[in-house]
């Protein structure tokens, strides 16, 4: 079934076997068994232990083979050495999923690692998917399923929690019980050697009971699946992530705990930003996020109003808003006029709205109602301190009444304890987020604004991308191959600049001279002043051994510099092999800014693009932003804006603005290198000089290593880049040339024009709708695709130098991860010319390469052209079980 998610046996099992249950009340498996029974699980439960015949009033079986009916899920809480054999039992009996609670695997040393690999091998042989080992387990409160050894009750709700730490799960669950916060799912991953974050997220995306997701991460095993799942989830549901391991000491702790890979923290931050995810910096942020997200609140903007009966709490709230870049709303003239009528003359006359210490419940009600009606305000934080003339509970009752009809989020903070306790409970009972501290209340609203910002960013439409000059990827790879064949890893400056030139990055030309005479001739041809650098395949950092001379202005100075360079190398690096001296022009730009652009390799996320201030003091200045490839122009501009050097690129004093678009172009080209040349491990352009006329790479250094990838699936990148190699030219009926290529975000306007220009009949066949204008969210969904999860090919022709889309085909992988669903539409004027056939061939070939087994699609029974084409391509048509007007097309790939 294409709608049945392959993790359904884990999240919604019909039957469970528990290995290790006993009459010992504190045994882990016994606690799990009791939790499953007490939670009210409706499915069948089978304790497995050869020592007993009955446990907890249930028959106990000596092995899985003795169980009278099929089992979907196994929960294993036995010593590590027994786990591989138990999985073997499970595989032979057709168990589909497992939860391995047992510890003693990789975290226990070499023997544990060996047992872990055995368990993985057995599970893969039988197709068993499992979470763990060394985890707390899984809870589905709505289904009455609690397969953990945690104590306490977990209420149903709309919040999902995924954590690598079982201890943190228990702490959050204990806190949530006191706050009446419920969960749709709680998943403790433990070491996560099989099922990881990406697949859990993939399940929760389509889970109707999950509205928001909280995650605690210590490390990531599969960066591609992680990013793909995060990006997909964040499009439809708020996701808040807290990660341990921001500093060296915590990195050591997390590695010893889960054995997971931990990369640079700024790279992880960039990954979350790229995914549209909200990041919390400490565990308290998970609690703050749970408080506000569990109530299903959503903001439609980010402008905040603060109402308070005390100046101090308001000042703290304002500081936090500034820290989080949350703008304080500017009150409208009509709102100010109303507040002047409602409040004493000494009120603050602005935002924050200080309604003074003697504010009554009536005052709070009137002011809150007024500001909720202000179009300039998107949300309200209400602060209250228990002063003599203020009744906290009475105010809370008025707020509850207002909230029942409010269309904007209200977040409350009743400070204190004894006098405000009943008011807080009232808020919790009525689903209004409430906090003890003003900073936390503002942070709670901040989670809503961040989600709003992320969704707004996702709907941004990049401008058209002109057909840039294609890079000479093959030539660049030949250079790298020759370097690796010589058993070198560091390219010379000449070789590094050749790679840059292959990707059309402007470089300062460089010529190698083998004698003083050659050097003088080259310098005269280039024109003074010049720079001279030692040329050696064995010297990595030329400056460290005195191998650089700058600003050489005449032939005599060339002669002197040549000798000095050789002498310096002989003295400081006597074993180095010198191949000559590089002569290049001395780049002098009166208005030049020195930048650094590069690629680093993160142990988790792979290639990372870096940008910042360049020059000799780059380590001291430490001005850099990072982003994961692939970049588009919007992302490149964002990278630049997040550095201090960005201001230097603007016009200031007597300097004109630098050619910022050319700087963006270099970042885009560097992104291409990161994606297309997986052998490049490190790349530094320092400096890249930018002025009003353009940019030029003065010096470059590239480090390479062996990388084998015959399928060209970009497995070295955390995000699947644009698969340019899938583009092809096609000849249509009538001799018309057409390009079939994957869709890209910059095609948004092309796609809009195409879809809105379709005939009503074509729209009806494709969308079951005849809309006039395509909604922005649908347009973003069509063009900003995750090439890991789906694929879309467009057919374009060029008319009068302008690209025109004439057809599109796409597939999306189904929940079973084994099949995909396709759709296709061709504009009416191009019917019968072979466009649809070529587009279908493109997605069929791509799905087959992806490893999918079936392609299917639903088509209206009167769409005879589509049905005829599908049959030619090998699809089998059957009447849909759900709709008599629809046929289901299916093809084995």
Estimate the mean pLDDT confidence. 90
How far apart the termini lie comes to 17 Å
Uncertain residue segments: 249-262
CATH H-level name of the largest domain... which superfamily? ATP-grasp fold, B domain
Tally of discrete structural domains: 6
Q: What is the makeup of the main sheet?
A: 8 strands, mixed
What structural category characterises the helix and strand content? alpha/beta
Total count of helical runs of at least 4 residues: 29
DSSP helix fraction: 25-40%
Radius of gyration, in Å, reads: 32 Å
Q: Please state roughly what percent of the residues sit in beta strands, choosing from under 5%, 5-15%, 15-25%, 25-35%, 35-45% or over 45%.
A: 15-25%
Descriptive report:
This protein is α/β, with parallel strands linked by helices. The protein has 6 domains: 133 residues, Rossmann fold, CATH 3.40.50.720; 147 residues, Rossmann fold; 162 residues, Rossmann fold (3-Layer(aba) Sandwich), CATH 3.40.50; 173 residues, D-amino Acid Aminotransferase, Chain A, domain 1, CATH 3.30.470.20; 64 residues, Dna Ligase, domain 1, CATH 3.30.1490; 169 residues, 3-Layer(aba) Sandwich (Aminopeptidase). Helix content is 37%, strand content 23%. The protein has 29 helices and 37 strands. An 8-stranded mixed β-sheet has the order 30-31-32-33-34-35-37-36, sandwiched between helices. Strand 12, helix 7 and strand 13 form a beta-alpha-beta unit. It is globular. About 2% of the residues have low confidence.
């Amino acid at each position: 079934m294409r709608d049945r998610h392959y993790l359904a046996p884990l999240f919604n099992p019909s039957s469970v076997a528990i290995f290790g249950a006993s009459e010992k009340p504190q045994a882990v498996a016994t606690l799990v068994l009791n939790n499953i029974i007490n939670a009210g699980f409706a499915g069948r439960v089978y304790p497995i232990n050869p020592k007993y015949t009955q446990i907890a009033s249930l028959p106990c079986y000596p092995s899985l083979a003795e169980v009278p009916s099929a089992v979907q899920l196994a929960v294993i809480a036995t010593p590590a050495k027994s786990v591989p054999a138990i999985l073997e039992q499970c595989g032979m009996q057709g168990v589909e999923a497992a939860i391995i609670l047992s510890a003693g695997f990789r975290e226990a040393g070499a023997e544990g690692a060996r047992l872990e690999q055995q368990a993985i091998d057995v599970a893969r042989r039988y197709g068993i998917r499992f979470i763990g080992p060394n985890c707390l387990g899984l809870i589905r409160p709505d289904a009455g399923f609690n397969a953990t050894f945690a104590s306490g009750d977990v209420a149903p709700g709309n919040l999902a929690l995924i954590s690598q730490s079982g201890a943190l799960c228990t702490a959050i669950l204990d806190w949530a019980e006191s706050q009446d916060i419920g969960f749709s799912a709680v998943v403790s991953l433990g070491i996560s050697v099989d099922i990881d974050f990406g697949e859990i997220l993939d399940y929760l995306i389509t889970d109707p009971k999950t509205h928001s997701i909280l995650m605690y991460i210590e490390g990531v095993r599969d960066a591609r699946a992680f990013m793909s799942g995060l990006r997909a989830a964040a499009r439809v549901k708020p996701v808040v992530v807290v990660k341990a391991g921001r500093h060296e000491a915590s990195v050591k702790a997390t590695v010893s705990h889960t054995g997971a890979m931990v990369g640079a923290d700024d790279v992880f931050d960039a990954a979350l930003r790229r995914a549209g995810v909200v990041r919390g910096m400490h565990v308290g942020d998970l609690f703050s996020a749970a408080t506000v997200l569990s109530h299903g609140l959503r903001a439609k903007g980010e402008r905040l109003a603060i109402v308070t009966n005390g100046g101090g709490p308001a000042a703290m709230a304002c500081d936090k808003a500034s820290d989080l870049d949350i703008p304080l709303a500017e009150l409208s003239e009509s709102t100010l006029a109303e507040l002047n009528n409602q409040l004493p003359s000494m009120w603050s006359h602005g935002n924050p709205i200080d309604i003074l210490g003697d504010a009554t419940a009536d005052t709070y009600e009137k002011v809150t109602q007024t500001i909720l009606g202000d179009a300039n305000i998107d949300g309200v934080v209400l602060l209250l301190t228990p002063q003599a003339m203020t009744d906290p509970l009475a105010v809370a009752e008025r707020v509850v009444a207002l909230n029942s009809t409010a269309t904007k989020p209200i977040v409350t903070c009743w400070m204190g304890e004894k006098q405000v306790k009943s008011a807080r409970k009232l808020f919790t009972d009525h689903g209004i987020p409430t906090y003890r501290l003003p900073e936390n209340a503002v942070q709670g609203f901040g989670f809503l604004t961040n989600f709003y910002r992320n969704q707004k960013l996702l709907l941004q439409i990049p401008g058209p991308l002109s057909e840039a000059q294609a890079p000479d990827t093959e030539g660049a790879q030949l250079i790298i191959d020759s370097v690796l064949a010589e058993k070198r890893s560091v390219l010379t400056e000449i070789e590094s600049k050749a790679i840059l030139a292959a990707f059309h990055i402007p470089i300062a030309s460089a010529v190698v001279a083998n004698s003083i005479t050659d050097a003088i001739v080259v310098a005269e041809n280039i024109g003074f002043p010049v720079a001279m650098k030692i040329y050696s395949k064995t010297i990595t950092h030329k400056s460290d051994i005195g191998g650089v001379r700058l600003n050489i202005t005449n032939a005599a100075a060339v002669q002197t510099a040549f000798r000095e360079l050789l002498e310096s190398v002989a003295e400081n690096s006597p074993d180095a092999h010198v191949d000559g001296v590089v002569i290049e022009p001395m780049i002098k730009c009166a208005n030049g800014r020195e930048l650094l652009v590069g690629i680093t390799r993160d142990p988790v996320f792979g290639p990372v693009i870096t940008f910042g201030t360049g020059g000799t003091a780059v380590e001291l200045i430490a001005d850099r932003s990072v982003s994961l490839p692939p970049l588009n122009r919007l992302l490149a501009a964002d990278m630049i804006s997040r550095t201090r050097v960005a201001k230097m690129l603007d016009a200031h004093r007597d300097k004109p603005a630098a050619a910022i678009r050319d700087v963006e172009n270099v970042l885009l080209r560097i992104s291409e290198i990161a994606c297309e040349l997986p052998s490049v491990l490190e790349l530094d352009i320092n400096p890249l000089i930018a002025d009003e006329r353009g940019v030029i790479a003065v010096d470059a250094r590239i480090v390479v290593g062996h990388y084998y990838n015959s399928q060209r699936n970009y497995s070295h990148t955390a995000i699947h880049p644009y698969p340019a190699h899938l583009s092809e030219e096609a000849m249509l009926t009538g001799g018309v040339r057409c390009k079939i290529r994957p869709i890209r975000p910059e095609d948004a306007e092309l796609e809009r024009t195409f879809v809105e220009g379709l005939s009503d009949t074509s729209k009806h066949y494709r969308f079951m709708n005849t809309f006039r204008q395509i909604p922005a969210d649908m347009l973003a969904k069509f063009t900003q695709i995750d090439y890991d999860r789906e694929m879309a090919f467009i057919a374009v022709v060029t008319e009068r130098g302008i690209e025109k889309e004439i057809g599109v085909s796409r597939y999306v992988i189904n929940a079973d991860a084994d099949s995909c669903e396709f759709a296709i539409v061709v504009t009416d004027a191009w019917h019968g010319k072979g466009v649809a056939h070529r587009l279908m061939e493109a997605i069929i070939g791509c799905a087959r390469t992806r490893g999918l087994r079936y392609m299917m699609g639903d088509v209206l029974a009167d769409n005879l052209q589509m049905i005829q084409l599908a049959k030619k391509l090998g699809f089998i048509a059957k009447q849909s079980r759900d709709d008599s007007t629809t046929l289901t097309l299916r093809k084995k790939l």
